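Continuing the series of single-chain predictions for the mutant panel. This is the parent chain; the variants come on the following pages.
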Amino acid sequence: MKSGRIFWGTLFLIIGILGLLHNFFGLHLAWDALWKLWPLLLIFLGLSAFLKDSKSRWIVAACIALLAGVIIFSSVQKGCDSVDRVIDHHFDDSDVVVIDQTLRQTYDSSVTRAVLAFEAGAGKFEIRDTTMTDFVRADVHSSISEYRLERDDTGDMVRFTLGMEEASVRWKGKRIKNHVIMHLHPEPAWDIDIDAGAADIDLDLRPYDVRLLSLETGATSMAVRLGNRADTAYVRVETGASTLRMHVPEDVGCEVRMESALSKRSLEGFTRTPSGRYRTPNFDAAEKKIFISVESGLSTLRIERDPISAW
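Parent structure:
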């Protein structure tokens, strides 16, 4: 039997067992502590590189899968059960209170560089169409916390911080809402920093001049569409267990660097370099370039090149 089959079988088995125990028997563990076991994955991966005996490799593969399953499950629970301060609303599913907000900061044409820092826990978070009257507009639909949008003019760039009023929250019931749609002005050059837990993230950045995109997440599903307005753009992704689908313009040269314990990748139209990075054929000749760096635990990464005619 191949070690790969041992790994996937054990992984699905442990996640399924933990899920059943949690759903039907109220399993409560120190998820924060369990999530911190991720360095053991690297240790076992290092050991597997030295082993030639197939039985030993099976054992190590099973240990890696066991740890990966615990870490994935605890990562999801960590994102869903952020607890220090508690919103004192105890509703059943039929009494969920939803907060609708529209937060905005008025546009100032004298500002040419801006930063958007977004921080939240679990939910669905999007960047969509542009706004021509505001620097930032956020449409919030949440049952767990109100949001705030602050502006800081210190330094050489204007910084906008969008996040929940509550530092950490706990919720009851199944109909939880936490949906934020963000709209940005297309004129400034943007740095975007997103820090989220277990989330569904959808970013359409094609209309924007994005110089830096930083994504730090837990267990997430991410879809990112990059544009070609910036001469040089940097994308940095740090994630636990995630699915990441990224679209880059075909006319931009792109380089991808990956550091991951266990991952599945699909980079169509990229060529692996002697240094272990991946580049598009037009990387050296392209006037505009995108540099993508991904550090992840267990992830699926897919990067596609889109022709401009498809926009």
